[in-house]
């Protein structure tokens, strides 16, 4: 059984929906934030750590280090939420050998080169290609903002 409780693309990383809905739903014991810039930013790491309950572990990793940690695995007692800002980060970790059974899209807001993809989810053509790459690798990609929502299969939207 995998120790990964949730892998989520959310450009807000740690925020209310993750802390209230998903943390409770998954009973996660650890959160792994994967973002190359955040991993090098001591202030941002401190802000992220303060946003997480004291009983939940937090690590902030580059994509390369996160992939190595995911390949190594976690103890069975751990339940880990993996959070990334962009589909590119998942693809980068896959290039380093990490595999993903499921990826949840929870927040990809409007930005330059992005168009509305599904409700409040936006994606560029390049990001849509990355989502297809994940699906082609056997990953189930869904959109599900909060745990109580029904999951929407991204493969049907592409």
UniProtKB/TrEMBL annotation:
<keyword id="KW-0598">Phosphotransferase system</keyword>
<keyword id="KW-0808">Transferase</keyword>
<dbReference type="GO" id="GO:0016301">
    <property type="term" value="F:kinase activity"/>
</dbReference>
<feature type="domain" description="PTS EIIB type-4">
    <location>
        <begin position="1"/>
        <end position="158"/>
    </location>
</feature>
<protein>
    <submittedName>
        <fullName>PTS system, mannose-specific IIB component</fullName>
    </submittedName>
</protein>
<dbReference type="GO" id="GO:0009401">
    <property type="term" value="P:phosphoenolpyruvate-dependent sugar phosphotransferase system"/>
</dbReference>
<dbReference type="InterPro" id="IPR036667">
    <property type="entry name" value="PTS_IIB_sorbose-sp_sf"/>
</dbReference>
<keyword id="KW-0418">Kinase</keyword>
<keyword id="KW-0813">Transport</keyword>
<keyword id="KW-0762">Sugar transport</keyword>
<dbReference type="InterPro" id="IPR004720">
    <property type="entry name" value="PTS_IIB_sorbose-sp"/>
</dbReference>
<dbReference type="GO" id="GO:0008982">
    <property type="term" value="F:protein-N(PI)-phosphohistidine-sugar phosphotransferase activity"/>
</dbReference>
<dbReference type="GO" id="GO:0005737">
    <property type="term" value="C:cytoplasm"/>
</dbReference>
<dbReference type="Pfam" id="PF03830">
    <property type="entry name" value="PTSIIB_sorb"/>
</dbReference>
<keyword id="KW-0963">Cytoplasm</keyword>
């Amino acid at each position: 059984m995998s120790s990964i409780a949730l892998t989520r693309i959310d450009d807000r990383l740690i925020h209310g929906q993750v802390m209230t809905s998903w943390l409770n739903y998954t009973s996660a014991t650890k959160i792994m934030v994967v973002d190359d810039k955040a991993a090098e930013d001591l202030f941002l790491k401190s802000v992220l750590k303060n946003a997480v309950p004291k009983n939940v572990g937090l690590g902030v990793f580059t994509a390369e280090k996160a992939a190595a940690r995911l390949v190594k695995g976690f103890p069975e007692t751990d339940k880990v939420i993996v959070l990334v800002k962009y589909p590119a980060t998942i693809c980068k970790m896959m290039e380093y050998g990490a595999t993903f059974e499921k990826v949840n899209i929870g927040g990809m807001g409007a930005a330059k080169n992005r168009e509305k993809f599904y409700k409040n989810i936006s994606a560029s053509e390049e990001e849509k290609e990355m989502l297809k790459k994940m699906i082609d690798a056997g990953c189930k990609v869904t959109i599900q903002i909060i745990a109580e929502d029904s999951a929407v299969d991204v493969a049907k939207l592409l």
